[in-house]
Amino acid sequence: EVQLVESGGGLVQAGGSLRLSCAASGFTFDDYAIGWFRQAPGKEREGVSCISSSDGSTYYADSVKGRFTISSDNAKNTVYLQMNSLKPEDTAVYYCAAKRTLYGLCYGSSWYGILSVGDYWGQGTQVTVSS
Predict the structure, then answer these.
(1) Which among 112, 124, 131 is positioned nearest to 21, based on CA atoms?
(2) CA 24 – CA 42 distance, rounded (Å)
């Protein structure tokens, strides 16, 4: 059975940090672009970040650049999202997504469109940042 399972969410004060994990089972990360989306109540889903499994290239939404870092451990089939300097506007449910692409590339500035039609999605983990 193919699964993506997120963990690491929680409640943190503004300025704090959290690290989210996305563990995959039933498939390997090879040839997959992996990334994170988030959705706050009453708002549209927002792409956060993408990492290419082949070369480790990373891409970020402008709203999180310089604060969030995506990384992967292909041996563990796990992707991480390190979130620093958190703001109340980062409060959302965070979802992990995986999309099979040529060489697992995110395709640069097209990463959001590529990943938004992901092959696999996790169930989400809540991140709440208090002011």
Answers:
(1) 124
(2) 29
